[in-house]
Amino acid sequence: GAGVSQSPSNKVTEKGKDVELRCDPISGHTALYWYRQSLGQGLEFLIYFQGNSAPDKSGLPSDRFSAERTGGSVSTLTIQRTQQEDSAVYLCASSLGAVNTGELFFGEGSRLTVL
Amino acid sequence: GNSVTQMEGPVTLSEEAFLTINCTYTATGYPSLFWYVQYPGEGLQLLLKATKADDKGSNKGFEATYRKETTSFHLEKGSVQVSDSAVYFCALSPGAGNNRKLIWGLGTSLAVNP
Question: Can you list the residues of chain B whose pLDDT is less than 70?
Answer without folding.
Answer: 95-100
